[in-house]
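User: Structure please.
Assistant: Input sequence and predicted structure:
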Amino acid sequence: MTAPGELLTTTVSHPGFQNVNAGDDGLSAFFAVRPRLFAIAYRMLGSVAEAEDIVQDVWLRWQSTNRSVVLDPPAFLATTTTRLCINHAQSARVRRETYVGPWLPEPVDTSNDPTLGAERGEALGLAVLVLLEKLCPTERAAYVLREAFDYPYRQIADILQMEEANVRQLVSRAKKHVTDGRRAPVSSAEQQRLLAAFIGAAQKGDFAALEGLFASDVVSYSDGGGFVRAAQKPIAGRERVAKFIAAVSVHFWTGVTLTPVQINGQAGMLMLRAGNPVALSTVDASAEGIDQIMWIMRPSKVAALAKSRQAVATHA
């Protein structure tokens, strides 16, 4: 099997090679598929900043590639993106093992692109991205390419340099992992309703109302990254989570204004204090109620989302 460091050494044998117009500077081919490249990288890494770095690296490699022998630029670029992500994910996993408190994916604004470049919205929700973190990078790549972008198994096999039968097994195991790790989600409208009800009860510190919204095994995750005060471990169980949220309501919501946002294809609530973004909250819910509450409080993640929203509003 190819070692991780060898994944990107292939040039002439890269999927999609043949003669094309040598005079093309590659700009049109690259920018035509750039949204998809970012969407693949984001799903692979769970980080907007890291996905942007990967896409930039792909662009640099594309510029130094002999494009006169590339038959299928989109296939070539998707392959390069995926292989770079696999290499990067292996080192990212090591870094996240020493992360202070729970790690949550960096949220991305999907208000203008609900599917983030995918034919389907798969592997985009925060709860699913958390589950995918537990997969090995190759397994995650196979799942993302198949379930989010509907790549044929044969093409995924070429990208991953594996047998097609092995790719099918990877996708099957990954799907089982996601299915077993999460109940069937409610509709987008119901998720939004539950989030609004949760935020309202949390602001009031209404213990009974909070309990009524939660599934019995609800879990609250707080990602502060060690930069702000946040729960260092997940809090689990209906009563414990309700008590925790009711207890912090006295000081947490002081001076906070709320802005509804659309992140990762689901409703979220951005919290600002004195005009500065301080936290983002969203929930994952099933027929049993709210299963997960995700608090993203790491300043860099919250600020990046706010900056992205501001940029979109400026160009609207």
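Confidence is low (pLDDT under 50) at residues 1-23.
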